[in-house]
Specification:
Blueprint lengths: L8 E9 L3 H13 L5 E4 L4 E3 L4 H5 L9 E3 H4 L5 E3 L3 E5 L4 E4 L4 E9 L4 E2 L7 H4 L5 E2 L7 H9 L4 E7 L9 H15 L7 E7 L8 H14 L2 E3 L2 E7 L4 E6 L7 E6 L2 E3 L4 E2 L2 H4 L27 E3 L12 H19 L12 E8 L2 E7 L18 H19 L14 H6 L8
Length: 431
């Protein structure tokens, strides 16, 4: 049961705002390190989502039941769950005001709210979503309809987009496209009559050059057209037209209209409004919580830490990034409470299991240096069947039973599964 938020004022030593992957992971690691520590989690949702599994479930690679659980079942033992949301942040006064009007004071605040999907930044998109061929795997209510539209596609132009803003799971726009293309090619008469176009607002397909070279080979092999510096700004659903602002190449920005039969949209993303409007936000686009890139501590409020998608940490926003950030934040938070220097530093580690087909994955791991790193003792730039098994069979179990239990902080990825990973380490196909 969630704790009552009826009192006018409450105090907790550690207040975590957000009960998603980042917030639960931090709470679990704190309580494992300091049993009995007064930790409260402010989270309104009753269902906890394994968002990394949405694409897998929609594509039939993972049962939907493995993508969600009741929030009450993932709250760590010893933590207090306040089932409410943050209405405002007052860091000067060390308190958060909830939507129910309760003032929550704290010694240390951890902000882990995640981000918001800003559908309205694309003109015509909110009302078009789910009809006239407009779909999105980023909209949980539309996931099943998205994959039905892909499976029922009869041919024509299938358009996939990537926005100009940072997004959670940066490889997801391509994952959906590659799986959809597999479905098109396997459907009689559809593949030969389908034109697949990937329009990205970015300057290249992937931010790390070594992985970019891999995905360039993938799209070339598949015959997918790529259009870079193309940012979706409007959807004219009844006309089935996607309107892009095109920048780059030293030319003036221009508009380009592309007709489509199927349009998969990845919306722009930003910090939740309550964060962007608060003193915690960084000045500039996004409204992210302004933290030191190495310590996860706020640059202006020493008793505030942040991690995950809502933070300004300059790395890809992913669950793997949270796994790297959480132990650093926990070590530094405990040091702060005890008046010690902050001992831990985050190196920017993140990862994206980039699904390139229904049986292979590029396990794209990297850090602030934007160089490939590998937790699996193999070349991470290769498409591998072994990594497909890790992504679809191992990671969901690890998420529920290791990550959310605070048990994965001793290693980046799969220390308990090291023998399995080594056994599966050979590439199925060197591409």
């Amino acid at each position: 049961m969630g704790a009552s938020a009826s009192d006018h004022h409450r105090h907790h030593r550690v207040l975590i705002v957000g009960g998603g992957s980042a917030g639960i992971t931090v709470a679990a690691q704190l309580l494992r390190a300091r049993p009995g520590l007064d930790v409260a989690i402010l989270e309104p949702a009753t269902v906890h989502e394994y968002q990394s599994g949405w694409i897998l479930a929609g594509a039939g690679l993972l049962p939907y039941a493995q993508t969600q659980r009741q929030e009450a079942t993932v709250i760590p033992a010893g933590a207090v769950w306040i089932q409410d949301s943050a209405a405002s942040f007052e860091p000067e006064a060390r308190r958060v005001i909830t939507a129910a009007g309760v003032a929550l004071s704290y010694e240390v605040l951890v902000v882990a709210t995640g981000l918001k999907l800003d559908w309205s930044r694309i003109q015509g998109l909110p009302e078009a979503l789910g009809q006239h061929g407009v779909v999105s795997n980023y909209s949980h209510p539309h996931i099943a309809a998205t994959w039905k539209a892909i499976r029922d596609f009869h041919g024509g132009t299938a358009l996939f987009t990537h926005p100009a803003t940072p997004i959670k799971c940066g490889g997801a726009p391509q994952k959906v496209m590659y799986l959809a293309d597999d479905i098109f090619q396997a459907t009689s008469g559809v593949g030969v009559n389908t034109r697949v176009i990937f329009c990205s607002a970015l300057a290249q397909l992937y931010p790390v050059q070594a992985y970019n070279a891999t995905v360039e080979r993938v799209v070339e092999r598949r015959g997918i057209e790529t259009r870079l510096f193309h940012n979706l700004v409007e959807v004219r659903a009844e006309e089935r037209l996607a309107v892009f602002e095109v920048r780059g190449g030293g030319r003036e920005p221009r508009r380009e209209e592309i007709p489509y039969d199927l349009l998969h949209v990845v919306p722009p993303m930003a910090a939740p409004d309550v964060i962007a409007a608060s003193p915690l936000a960084i000045l500039g686009p996004g409204g992210w919580v302004e933290v030191d890139k190495f310590t996860c501590q706020h640059k202006r409020f020493g008793d505030v830490f942040a991690l995950g998608d809502v933070s300004s940490l300059p790395t890809a926003k992913s669950l793997a990034a949270v796994r790297g950030q959480a132990p650093v934040l926990v070590a530094n938070l405990l040091a702060w409470l005890e008046g010690r220097p902050l001992p831990a530093q985050y190196d920017g580690y993140t990862a994206c299991p980039l699904i390139t087909c229904f049986h292979e994955v590029v396990m794209a791991e990297f850090d602030y240096s934007l160089q490939p790193v590998s937790s699996f003792l193999v070349d991470p730039t290769k498409e591998r069947w072994s990594m497909f098994l890790v992504e679809t069979r191992v990671f969901p179990w690890v998420y529920w039973h290791r990550v959310l239990k605070g048990r994965l902080h001793e290693s980046r990825f799969l220390k308990p599964f090291a023998p399995l990973v080594r056994a599966l380490g050979l590439a199925r196909r060197e591409t």
